[in-house]
Write a structure and sequence with these properties.
By secondary structure, the chain is an alpha+beta fold. It has three helices and 17 strands. The strands form two sheets. The protein has a 15-stranded antiparallel β-sheet that branches. The N and C termini lie far apart (50 Å). One of its GO terms (cellular component) is endoplasmic reticulum membrane. InterPro entries: Oxoglu/Fe-dep_dioxygenase_dom, P4HA-like, Pro_4_hyd_alph.
């Protein structure tokens, strides 16, 4: 019985992967007066209003992702030259969803950012959802830049936390706190390191918060710490420059 259920789940994911699924995603409200919180001297910043996604939007994305079904993703680990990875993942190609997220507020955040004469033009339509259960983590790694053709290349990683605290515990220059005693997730911080492995920033998941950091050749080494209570959900895409 369990084997048949797993096979049906795999077939469902295979059918959905690589297809646009406009209509199954929640509607995203346009966000105004985004609070952009930059870490001086880096290309790392968060976006809150106080949430880039509302709590309702975040939950709706979690529900949609769970309806699709996650597949486990691991790695061979450092002994084989790979970062340690243990999480569950979904990948969908959806240009409509990518555009909706971009136009809901991200676009204005990149108005004054230019890289080698290139400007931000949108999000990578490859949308990924990550799920981390208790004990799961993603070891130290860097995110590669992806050439999408026609002069377009990804330059920033976008992470939108779909679960987490209702108040931020971000440290090292990224403090933004709300008055709340509700802590729905323990662990799962995104931690950035400098070249000497000193901690540059620790970003605790906050429901609906967007985290952006440059990737490719200038990407900081970073990791996703192990979750110790409840489940961490993240939406991932990339900012494209051209």
């Amino acid at each position: 019985m369990a084997a048949r259920e797993e096979e049906r789940g795999k077939a469902k994911r295979k059918k959905m992967m690589g297809k646009e699924m406009d209509g199954m995603w929640p509607r995203i409200k346009a966000k105004k007066d985004l609070q952009i919180n930059r870490l001086k001297g880096t290309h790392l910043f968060t976006a809150q209003v106080p949430n880039f996604f509302t709590a309702a939007e975040a939950k709706a994305f979690v529900d949609a992702a769970e309806a699709i079904g996650f597949a486990h993703q691991g790695s061979q680990g450092p002994a084989k030259g790979e970062a340690y990875r243990d999480n569950d993942r979904i990948s969908v190609s959806d240009p409509v969803l990518a555009e909706n997220i971009w136009e809901s507020g991200l676009k204005s955040m990149f108005d004054d950012i230019e890289l080698r004469g290139k400007i931000a033009v949108g999000l990578n339509p490859n949308i990924r959802f990550y799920r981390y259960k208790v004990g799961q983590r993603f070891g130290c790694h860097i995110d590669e830049s992806v050439n999408l053709g026609e002069g377009r290349r990804t330059q920033y990683t976008l992470l939108i936390y779909l679960s987490g605290d209702l108040c931020s515990k971000t440290r090292h220059g990224l403090d933004k706190t709300q008055d709340s005693s509700i802590h729905s997730l323990v662990g799962g911080e995104t931690v950035f390191y400098d070249e000497r492995k000193g901690i540059v920033a620790e970003v605790a998941p906050m429901v609906g918060m967007a985290l952006l950091h440059i990737h490719g050749g200038r990407c900081m080494l970073h990791e996703a710490r192990a979750v110790t209570k409840n489940v961490k959900y993240v939406l991932r895409s990339d900012v494209v420059f051209a």
